[in-house]
Amino acid sequence: MGIAELIILAVGLSMDAFAVAICAGLSMAKTSLKKALIVGLYFGLFQAGMPLIGYFAAQLLANAVSTYSHWIAFGLLCFLGGKMILDSFKNGDCPESEQSLKPSKMLPLAIATSIDALAVGVSFAMLYVNIVPAVSLIGVITLVVSMLGLKIGGAFGAKFKSKAQFAGGVILALMGLNIFLQHFQIIGF
C-alpha cells in the first residue's frame, strides 16, 4: 500500500471523528485552539491505536488466514464503508454526550469512532503494511481533520455531518474494492 493510498484511507477513517467533532463544535459557545487540540488528540490517538491493536491481533492469526487475506481485507473495508454510507442517511441530531470535553464524554466517543480502524489494522496485517508509518499517518490526519471539524461545527452547524460520513464510507469501500482488484490483477487505483 503506497503513501497516496494510506492518505486516502486515513482521510476516510477520520470522517467519523470529523462528524463527531462538528457536533462538539455545535455545542460550544466558542471554539478555541486548545479545545480543538483536545478533541484532535482524543480522536487521533485512538484512530492510530486501534489499527495497531488490530494489526498485532491479526499477526497472531496470520498463518491461519493468509490464503484468504485479500477477501478479509476487501470484506472488512466494504462492510465498514457501507455502514458509514448507510449511517450518513440517518437524520439524527448530535447526541448530548458530545457537548463536553471531559474524559468521561470524550473517551467513549473516541473509542466508538475508531472501532472501524481496528478492522483496518487487521487488513494492514494481511497486506503486510509497514504499521508504524501507517498508524502515524492515520493519527496525524485524524488529529488535523478533527480539529477542523470542531472549528467548522462552531462556525457552520450540522449540515456537514452526514456528508462527511458518506464521503468516509465511499473512501473505505473504494479502498476495499482496490484491494480486491489488485489481488486479481484486474486494475488498481
The rounded Rg comes to: 16 Å
Q: Specify the biggest β-sheet.
A: none
Unreliable residue stretches:
none
Derived structural class: mainly alpha
Which of globular, elongated, flat, extended, rod-shaped describes the shape? globular
Distance between the termini: 11 Å
User: Percent range for helical residues?
Assistant: over 70%
What is the string of SSEs from the N terminus onward? HHHHHH
Mean pLDDT: 79
Strand content: under 5%
Number of helices: 6
The strand count comes to: 0
Textual characterization of the structure:
- The chain has about 190 residues and is mainly α.
- About 80% of the residues lie in helices and about 0% in strands.
- The chain contains six helices and no strands.
- The protein has helices spanning about 5-25, 35-65, 70-90, 105-125, 130-155, 160-185.
- Helix 1 runs parallel beside helix 5.
- The longest helix has about 35 residues, at about 35-65.
- The chain is globular, with a radius of gyration of 16 Å.
- The model has no long low-confidence stretch (mean pLDDT about 80).
Quick take:
By secondary structure, the protein is mostly helical.
Which structural traits does this protein have?
189 residues, mainly alpha
SSE topology:
Layout (H helix, E strand, L loop, with lengths): L2 H24 L6 H33 L3 H20 L14 H24 L4 H26 L4 H23 L6
